[in-house]
User: What shape does this take?
Amino acid sequence: MLFRRPAQLVARAFPALVLVWLLTLLVAAEPLSLGQLVEEARGGLYNRFWLDGVEVEDGFSLERLNNSQWLGLQLDHPQADDGLLAAGAALALNKNAVYLVLERSQLPYFLRQADKVRPGQVLIPGPNDTVTRFGSAKETPVTLDKPNDSFIGSLMSNLNNFEYGEARLHLQAIKEAMVRVGGSSAPYCEALNVARPADFDSPAKALAQDLAALKNARSCVFYLYDGRSRPSGIWVEVGAALAWGKPSVLLTPSLEALPPALLQPQKGLRVVVYQTHQHLLHQLQSNDAGSLVVP
Assistant: This one.
């Protein structure tokens, strides 16, 4: 009897344990309101995102985001995170979004004034702000200086002056290859118009112009200078391109630089791993350039 009693106790307790487990699952799956989500985010420093108040734990899914009403994004010293893809897709699909950061500098440059580009639709509350609802979305039309038919996006953040200059040489070669063999007559590339990182337009203007140019484009080429995983506006651009169904090529020297979702096949996106910068330039200037710039 002494040896049977623990087993009997476990048997009697088992239904109660199952009930507690099921109740825990139900509570965990209960969507948070906007106000509840903002309050929960104040208690921790994480890189995560929510759709309709439910935390997403299995990565970026365009289909799931497309079926959602709003996005919550929390960032704290992020790298190349799926949440940035979701932020770009949400902008493209005109979804409401709230960005939760201790300081706006935690956001990629393009997103730091997104609430000015999409007032009411994008919220970036301060640490002590109370937020309970989104406002009425107001999108200001943007007119580009020149028309474009394709788009070149690049990860230029945190490059020193030498790296930035070298990256611009690569971008120029990409642009020329798109015109020569890619069927493009007017590629848009903001970085080619900016000689130094310090010369970029305000975050609001940069975001508005990039989204307008991306929406006009028939195809896109995205370029990474190195293999470091970093938070960058390029992931916002890639997310928007996926949402708008833009055929795209992503050039990277390493898969380690990509958000996890881009390690899986994404419709309309072709990932190309190039070798060295010298080899990249040689290939862009050769008859094989189409394999790098044609989706």
Summary: DSSP finds ten helices and ten strands in the chain. Strands lie at 48-51, 54-55, 70-74, 96-100, 122-123, 150-155, 187-188, 219-224, 248-252, 269-273.
